[in-house]
Amino acid sequence: MGLQIFLFACTIALLASSSLVSAEVVKHSSHIPNISARKTLACLVERLVAENDTDSISEDGILKDLDIEGSNIDYGLTATSIASKDFGGIYAVKPLAFIRLARADDIVRVIRRALQSPTLTVAARGNGHSINGQAMADHGLVIDMKSMGDNNIIDVNVASMYVDVGGGVLWTDVLKRCLGYGLAPKSWTDYLDLTVGGTLSNAGVSGQAFRFGPQTSTVMELEVVTGNGVKTVCSNSQNSELFFSVLGGLGQFGIITRARIMLQHAPDMVRWIRVVYSEFDEFTRDAELLIMSEESFNYVEGFVVVNSDDPVTGWPSVPLASNQSFDPTHLPKKTGPVLYSLELALHYSKHDDSSTVNMLVEKLLRQLTFVEQLRFEIDSTYMDFLLRVNHAEQVARGSGSGIWDTPHPWLNMFVSKRDIAAFNRVVFQNITKGGVNGPMLTYPLLRSKWDSRSSVVLPQSDIFYSVSLLRFTHAHPKESEIKQMVAQNNEIVQTCIKNGFDFKLYLPHYESTAEWKKHFGDQWKRFVERKSQFDPKAVLAPGQKIFTRNHQL
Ligand code: FAD
């Protein structure tokens, strides 16, 4: 999946839309009391066990025998204001405490403390960009991975072409550091203010994944603190069961404190292109051709556009620059309620002759069947291209429109190639034909680029489509608006089930073990075995709602 470049145009359009201006910006309290010196969780745990009353725990109550220097522990209102919220803005549960730690060994201590309690859970919180409370812990301990001190290193090894990064580091910072050496990771997400540990716990997908696989396929080594409270280095050849469990493991087996990511030489520039189709079968044929060809673009994504002049979801969201316009008279008369756009990027060096770049672009585009007059392109630096959604976020925040902070009932799924045409008919051309007030992405991926030993589950076919419905609500949304969006997501999932589509939710969210069992299918047994090996007391990542603390595995 991925949040698309489309979001930039979408955000601009959202900002321009008068109905959306004037915002409700969720105000997080940024004040974290600095209870420095020696911090221990012991007393806190004892009181929890004794009273099971988290509201009454006071600052004085914390800490006798567990040394965690240079950390701070925040509870009560401040903890709630940060750790009980996420990007989705739909769920909110109250943690016992929000903990900032200095190093991986402190995570070991925290987990070991939690293990002494019959009820306490521990959630790693990356950047809290989950949709459904996945990084929360109801009356549990939430570790702020982003603020990890020593652990948040970014150490580039130029000779061996890899970077060692702390689990709480943002991909934005990885990009900037690596570019200083002329290097870059191979596989990205569309938006980079996500942590390394957060995306590796899911997969990490964008327009490069057809070539390099998801981000999880570009990891060489991990340092993990397991739910047993053991810090372990693992890789394909060392503690490999833990390595593959953690990749795409939804935080269930361990907390990633360091990852070694493969690098490649970074290009300077990108030719960024969007082309438009009126027919879904032509769009998918071309997209699949590009992801399977030896010679292709470096980035291939696609999105669905409403056949209207709506600034957020319609034609105006397609052009890449303000001096470009979309002339709908070029669309065939029989065009349906939605259009499709392939989004492509070709890397090049600033030393390349522009005619050489142009020739290669023309050669690649010549084989495609888009509407000839509906082609848009710009040149961008590689860094700006990768930071495109971050830029859109800045614009949105700067305008005070509030759309970044209001709820986001997003739906992400992977749909088998076998069923994507039918999916188009029942979902894109029907249920969401009026748009979702945000980008609707769909593009193909190759199963062969995903390691089946990781914990991610995929549809059966060799090619499957990432589908993302990235809904934005209005500023000050009514509860009914959010409910309607969630209900439409449910309708889509139920429609897929009813039609027997081969699909899996990406960034999945289920409320019961039975539903999780169905999600994992024949991989459930392996997932449970991994859980009993690495987190048998189900201390970790309770917000995923897969296992409950001390659940009999
Ligand atoms: P969090 O939401 O903080 O945590 C997610 C889960 O991982 C939780 O269960 C948490 O406990 C666990 N976790 C966090 N850190 C660690 C750690 N160090 N070790 C173990 N477990 C951990 N996804 C894509 O694949 N492609 C995209 O293009 C893309 N674009 C996005 C754009 C936006 C604007 C948003 C909001 C999300 C996007 N996502 C995308 C989804 C994103 O990858 C996931 O939501 C991811 O989990 C967010 O990272 P985070 O650091 O905020 O994690």
Distance between the termini: 31 Å
Strand content: 15-25%
What's the arrangement of strands in the largest beta sheet? 14-11-13-12-16-17-15-18
Biggest beta-sheet profile:
8 strands, antiparallel
Helical amount: 25-40%
Strand tally: 18
Query: Count of helices?
Result: 16
The low-confidence runs, each spanning 5 or more residues with pLDDT under 50, are: 1-65
State mean pLDDT (0 to 100 scale).
88
Oligomer: single chain
User: Over all CA atoms, what is the radius of gyration?
Assistant: 23 Å
Q: Label the structural class.
A: alpha+beta
Task: Give the bound compounds.
Answer: flavin-adenine dinucleotide
Global outline: globular
Describe it:
With 553 residues, the protein is an alpha+beta fold. 30% of the residues lie in helices and 20% in strands. It has 16 helices and 18 strands. A hairpin with a 4-residue loop joins strand 8 (219-226) and strand 9 (231-235). Helix 1 packs parallel to helix 12. The protein is globular, with a radius of gyration of 23 Å. Bound molecules: flavin-adenine dinucleotide. Flavin-adenine dinucleotide binds at residues 1-3, 86-87, 123-130, 134-135, 145, 167, 189-191, 194-195, 197-199, 201-206, 250-251, 255-256, 507, 541, 543-544. The site of flavin-adenine dinucleotide has 39 residues, from strand 3, helix 6 and strand 10.
